[in-house]
Amino acid sequence: MAALRVAVVGAGAAGLCASRFLAAQPDVFHHDVFEMASNVGGLWVYTDQTTKDSYGHDVHTSMYEHLCTNFPKEVMGFPDFPFSDKLPSFISHRDVRAYLEDYAKAFDLVKYVKFNTIVQSVMPSKDNAKTPWRVCVKQLATNKEEVLTYDAVVVCNGHYSKPIIPSIPGANTFHGKILHSHYYRTPDGFRDQTVVCLGAGPSGTDIALELAPYVKRVILSSNDEPFTCTMPSNLEQLAGIESIENGTIAFKDGEKRMADVVMLCTGYEYVYPFLAPECGIEVKHRMRVTPIYKHLLHVHRPSLVLVGLPQLVPPFVVFHYQVQYALKVLQGFTKLPTVEGRLADEESEIRMRLDMGLKPHQAHQMGGLLAGYLEDLADLAGVEPFPSVKYAILMESYFKMKQDLMNYKKYNYRIIDEDDYSVTEP
Fold first, then answer.
1. Which of 196, 225, 240, 342 could form a disulfide with 219 if both were Cys (CB 3.0 to 4.6 A apart)?
2. Backbone angles phi, psi at 181, to 5 degrees
3. Residue 382: how many CB atoms within 10 A of its CB?
């Protein structure tokens, strides 16, 4: 049987993970990885640039200078490739980039990567799920285009590059500056100002705390329940923004404040500009990809694999299990349900989240559903499940974050064995 030809879009963490497991079976898979940058690492490659890269494309990364991970390294890394024990539990983006470069070196992956190459389009050759895919790529340095055919396409382009810009009544009258957190790098340009951070997710809380020592006041604006833990004395929590009039921000709880800056920490859209309409993938509510089975496989064309859709997860761990399951499917070792069964499974997933009180745009949100999801993938792929001790660390870290947002990243965790771990307090 001829080897399956596989195209991987992106050489960030997900793309490297896909390449690692594809390369492990050279008699089964022949693969290429297409990366528009000149290095591996994707999102984790920091740059001071915020708008366009040297080729005129939008800057992909949303990293800011002092970003520190919000998951401890003990649970964040690929399950069989741990971070160095010399590092603290919560590490810088530079440490993560070095880790991914070590991962690529350990599995000799760079030789598969076509750098400075952008995927222009992905299109099925024929209206048949078993036929190869046509992938058009362009070398950025020469503008040379090439059309290649593959038996499968593994999409690993990430989903932290296209900011969601909410519509705020009166925003056009604002006398100050409105920007998305995607364009934030350092607190230096915000000294002595009043900054409203709209959104209290990981980015909103992290940036608000980082700004607090530099600014006059920082307002954390969110429709979620406010944090009850200790906060900086110049940080105020208010409801979401209702409207803006000149320099005044009106909040949904009736409060009004003057501000110099509105920082939109409002998340990112899922975008696949290279997937032709014939692929049949649709993004609804900016963040729900459909039709998709197991948050991973195209329902009607399972040889189109979209890695990394789940949210509120340690991403490298999810990539590790998603990729191994997807490759078992491509090899035919794991039998899929019928198309009707896959559609029913997708509907069940979204219905479960709606019943939990989540919104349609949170269709891929995991949170407390993560354990079951990873267990399911590991079972289907026939691989070792995610260790229970790491789940325990993940949950303890989460509760510490809710209880002490300012200090939870100062704790250090150490795995003792498959059942036990220790915690060192700051």
1. 196
2. -60, -20
3. 11
Q: Are strands 421-424 and 217-221 parallel, antiparallel or unpaired?
A: unpaired
Task: Say how many residues make up the chain.
Answer: 426
pLDDT at 129 over 60: no
pLDDT score for 426: 81
What is the distance between the alpha carbons of residues 243 and 241, in angstroms, rounded to a whole number? 6
When pLDDT is averaged across residues 120-130 and rounded to a whole number, the result is 79
CA distance 44 to 64: 10
**Rounded-to-integer distance, Cα 198 and Cα 331, Å:** 45
Distance, in Å, from the CA atom of 345 to the CA atom of 362, rounded to the nearest integer, reads 16
Residue 56's identity, in one-letter code, is G
Summarize pLDDT for 69-81 with one digit per residue, the tens: 999 999 999 999 9
Helix (H) or strand (E) holding 317: helix 315-331
* The pLDDT of residue 2: 86
Query: Which DSSP letter does residue 382 get?
Result: T
CA angle centred on 196, ends 192 and 201, rounded to 5°: 125
Residue 291 corresponds to which tokens in the numbers above? 């039709």
Characterize the bridge pairing of strands 248-251 and 421-424.
unpaired
- This prediction's pTM: 0.96
Element at 8 (helix H, strand E): strand 4-9
- H/E stretch holding 400 reads helix 388-403
The 3-state DSSP class for residue 231 equals coil
CA–CA separation, 213 and 208 (whole Å): 10
